[in-house]
Write a structure and sequence with these properties.
Number of helices: 16
Number of strands: 16
Largest sheet: 9 strands, mixed
Radius of gyration: 30 Å
Length: 468
């Protein structure tokens, strides 16, 4: 019998306007090497200054992960020499972490312990083209939070749930966009296999896994690989491996016989700073509901089905869009959820709009939904124009005025009169079968206008014409 044990280290880029220790902008998509300065490039004599927004986001993360927050902010230097690290060292936290001893709940009800989180800076980005390596320092110094779990997971499902729930918290609290495909959240997974469930086996690290699905695939592959080695009486080498998502296999990078000596020393250019307890409590009280709590509220308060709730949380803006409508305007929750899940979700699945096309603020969309629910625009028109409204390409206040003016009333009135004249036999049934007559003429107008007419407006005008 073999027992797998899994731990995960996550590096997450946080959302700040400037870098962690310099005033350069945190825009990695600008032209290469444009968002850099002397601090990012490690020029002699340059003194880094901590970005307090980055510190606040780290504290917020620690609180959300049920951690104890440090009373002092301290930084260290981690020394190693590589082309993407211009200073020859990385500013990180080794002797004292910003948060320790936390946990996160996963789907099966387990609590996975989190050893610590620490603030550090990202490295530059290496670009390989035609066999040559170029360095883009736009990413150098970007703020990172490293989140280190305990080795308490035992299968791929638990690990995937851990990453999924952690990512959800980071996105929901606006700490990070956490887009794994863009490198904003990177997973290093440690897997060991043992014949004794109380003893860890030889640890193998899989670096830089870029999706939750691949976390699961990499773990399952590595468990099978290591199990086969042990069954054949072979040794497992302590090493670092990478995940090949084309062939769905791990491949060796380098052996790790001993812990690397990074020669940590205190960062002498940043003096220890006291972390004000009142500031920490202020951050704590400012936190909204966490994702699992918010999901439970949707289930209880709005009676939404679990499948609908999960889709609302697949894109972090879906939930905020939903809340903007139901809380601010008091619309029917089921209707709003269905529009977001089935109408907007369909457009995203068909790639007619991208998730990032859903822009804030949501005033335009909320106004559009309001007028639809007040029957000022038809359901057909509403559905046909979701794409334009969600991307804010149309001013719907003007649209509503145009579609609900006197000309529209005159047009529908004239059309109803012509249908009444066209079907005198129906008018003969008005006294005996008024409902049938009423539905017939509304149907005629909707057919003539191909569903674009507002049913409530048609109904109101018809009642006046028929004196009912």
């Amino acid at each position: 019998m073999f027992y797998p044990t899994i731990g995960i280290e996550i590096h997450c880029e946080t959302k700040t306007q400037t870098k962690m220790f310099s005033s350069s902008l945190s825009d990695v998509y600008a032209p290469n090497n444009t968002n850099i300065n002397e601090i990012d490039l490690g020029y002699p004599g340059m003194k880094p200054q901590p970005n307090l927004v980055g510190v606040e986001l780290a504290i917020k993360t620690g609180i959300a992960l049920n951690m104890s927050i440090a009373d002092t902010l301290e930084f260290d230097r981690k020394h190693y020499f590589y082309s993407d690290l211009p200073k020859g060292f990385q500013i990180t936290q080794f002797s004292k972490h910003i948060g320790v001893d936390g946990y996160i709940e996963i789907e099966n009800g387990s609590k996975i312990g989190i050893s610590h989180i620490q603030i550090e800076e990202d490295t530059a980005k290496q670009n390989v083209k035609n066999g040559k390596i170029s360095i883009d320092y736009n990413r150098a110094g970007l703020p990172l939070i490293e989140i280190v779990s305990n080795a308490e997971m035992h299968n791929a499902e638990e690990a995937m749930s851990y990453v999924k729930n952690l990512k959800s918290i980071l996105v929901f609290l606006n700490i990070s966009d956490a887009q794994m495909e863009k490198g904003q959240l990177r997973c290093d997974v440690n897997v060991s296999i043992s014949t004794n469930k109380n003893t860890l086996g030889t640890k193998v690290e899989i670096k830089n896994i870029n999706s939750i699905k691949n976390v699961g695939l990499a773990i399952n592959y590595e468990i099978k690989r290591q199990t086969k080695l042990l069954e054949n009486q072979n040794f497992i080498i302590q090493e670092t491996r990478k995940w090949n998502d084309k062939d769905n296999v791990t491949a060796g990078l380098r052996e790790k016989t001993d812990a690397v000596d990074y020669k940590f020393i205190a960062e002498g250019n940043i003096m220890p700073l006291a972390i004000d307890k009142d500031w920490v409590e202020q951050i704590r009280h400012s936190l909204p509901l966490l994702p699992n709590q918010a999901k439970e509220e949707l289930r209880i308060k709005y009676d939404l089905k679990s499948e609908i709730i999960e889709v609302l949380f697949n894109n972090d803006l879906f939930y905020k869009l939903f809340i903007s409508c139901v809380d601010v305007k008091g619309f029917n929750a089921q209707d709003i959820a269905n529009v977001i899940v089935f109408q907007i979700g369909k457009l995203i699945n068909k790639k007619e709009i991208a998730p990032e096309d859903i822009e804030k603020p949501f005033d335009n969309f909320v106004s559009f939904v309001a007028n639809w629910k007040k029957d000022k625009i038809s359901t057909k028109v509403f559905k046909e124009n979701i794409q334009s409204i969600i991307t804010n390409k149309v001013d719907w206040s003007s649209f509503i005025e145009e579609t609900n003016n006197d000309d529209e009333i005159l047009k529908i009135t004239a059309l109803l009169k012509s249908k009444i004249d066209e079907f005198p036999n129906m008018m003969e049934q008005l006294n005996s079968r008024p409902e049938r007559v009423f539905k017939f003429f509304i149907g005629q107008v909707m057919k003539e206008t191909k569903g674009s007419a507002n049913p409530k407006l048609v109904s109101s005008i018809l009642k006046n014409l028929l004196n009912i």
